Amino acid sequence: MERLQKVIARAGVCSRRKAEDLIVNGKVKVNGEVVTTLGTVVSEKDKIYVNGKLLKDESKAYYVLNKARNTISSVSDEKGRKTVLDGFDVKKRIYPVGRLDFDTTGVLLLTNDGELANGLLHPSSNVSKVYIATIEGSISEDERLKLEEGVMIDNKKTSPCEVTINKVNEEKNKTIVKLTIHEGRNHQVKKMFEAINKKVLKLHREEFAGISSKGLYEGQHRKLTFEEVKSLKKLIEKKGK
Asked: Whole-angstrom Cα distance, residue 70 to residue 52?
């Protein structure tokens, strides 16, 4: 027996939180009866309908994409802009795990495993995210330490992180900085640099939850290996303990 919202999320329909909303709003039926009580448990024998469609626990798919610049981290775009799914030829309904800004490149996971996606994005997940930022000008040691210790963005201080100065180009007045953060706040890296009066010229996410884009050119994707999927699930299991 398993909770209804967890079964819906595992089937790749949506996140567990979204599944709870569907249940509360009377969009879910179990064996022909509308269920609105959160925590309802079901078995493999039960027939579950979400928005009138029979739930099928399709096989899971896991991909890593090196997101190209100027693409939308969404399954579709009403303005007709290119999305991260445009390069995929997959019959399963996959979707991005979180978002990267329109002009940001790098690691983006895509899956139909709602439970895993929801777990990785949960504020308590504490998964690592490694960014390479090219900023205008230089950065002093005091400024680097400020970033590491935490700066105020959107009226809240960022958590401690790791900041390394990779390269300084005095001729072009640019500095390449590596940041390892464990949060997922909106436009966080750009806002962190804004807090110390630095402009980000280019931003690339090198790694997410231990998964890298190494060997992938911009816009290219690949399936995650069995070991990579296993490592992601272990992160979620640890969070739940």
From this structure: 36
| Amino acid letter, residue 184 | G
pLDDT of residue 238: 66
Cβ neighbors of 208 (< 8 A, separation 6 or more) are 97, 107, 108, 109, 127, 128, 129, 130
What angle in degrees, to the nearest 10, is found between the helix axes of 16-24 and 114-121?
110
Active site annotation includes 86: no
Q: Which one of the listed residues 86, 101, 103, 154 is annotated catalytic?
A: 101
Which domains are delineated in the chain? 2-54 (3.10.290.10), 62-124+210-240 (3.30.70.580), 129-208 (3.30.70.1560)
The predicted model gives 65-74 an average pLDDT of: 95
Report d(CA 54, CA 47) in Å as an integer: 7
pLDDT value of residue 241: 47
Amino acid identity of residue 150, one-letter, is G
pTM over 0.85: no
